[in-house]
């Protein structure tokens, strides 16, 4: 991987981090007690019909929160690997992760073989 590849992939990861944080902010707030954790808020309701609707929205948002939190953690770990100069190295076999794989999934920590692709 060239230094230009690394700069480009770093920019992709940073952009994804901002996007994920923005998506989370639409329906959740950061948990001040737990690093990298968000809490989905539920809107108050005035009647039972509205309450049912708010609970359904909450369930969808909670599920989305969990997916986005996982993606965010993966991106942050990839950025940490860049800082540690271990980015692009498979965490399982120690070989270089294919550039095509990193371009498709910049947060990847496994090569295609170890990922079972």
Using only C-alpha atoms, the radius of gyration works out to 18 Å
Fourth-level CATH superfamily: DksA, coiled-coil domain
The biggest sheet amounts to: 2 strands, antiparallel
CATH class category name: Mainly Alpha
Provide the spatial order of strands within the biggest beta sheet.
1-2
CATH topology: Four Helix Bundle (Hemerythrin (Met), subunit A)
- Overall geometry comes to elongated
- Helix-strand topology string: HEEHH
Count of distinct strands:
2
* Span between termini: 20 Å
Output the number of helix runs: 3
- Helix percent band: 55-70%
User: What would CATH call the architecture?
Assistant: Up-down Bundle
As for the number of domains, it is 1
Runs in which pLDDT lies below 50 for 5 or more consecutive residues are none
Beta-strand proportion? 5-15%
Please supply descriptive tags for the structure shown above.
117 residues, mainly alpha, Four Helix Bundle (Hemerythrin (Met), subunit A), two-stranded antiparallel sheet, 3 helices
What does this structure look like?
With 117 residues, the protein is mostly helical. It has a single domain, classed as DksA, coiled-coil domain (Four Helix Bundle (Hemerythrin (Met), subunit A), Up-down Bundle). It contains 3 helices and 2 strands. Strands 1-2 form a two-stranded antiparallel sheet. A hairpin with a 7-residue loop joins strand 1 and strand 2. Helix 1 packs antiparallel against helix 2. It is elongated and about 60 Å long. The model has no long low-confidence stretch (mean pLDDT 94).
């Amino acid at each position: 991987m060239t230094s230009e590849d690394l700069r480009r992939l770093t920019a992709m990861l940073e952009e994804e981090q901002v996007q994920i944080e923005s998506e989370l902010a639409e329906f959740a707030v950061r948990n001040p007690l737990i690093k990298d954790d968000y809490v989905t808020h539920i809107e108050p309701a005035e009647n039972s019909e509205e309450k049912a609707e708010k609970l359904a929205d909450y369930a969808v948002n909670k599920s989305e929160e969990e997916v986005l939190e996982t993606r965010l953690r993966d991106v942050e770990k990839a950025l940490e690997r860049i800082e540690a100069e271990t980015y692009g190295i498979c965490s399982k076999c120690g070989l270089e992760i294919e550039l095509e794989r990193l371009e498709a999934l910049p947060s990847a920590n496994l090569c295609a073989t170890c990922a079972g692709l």
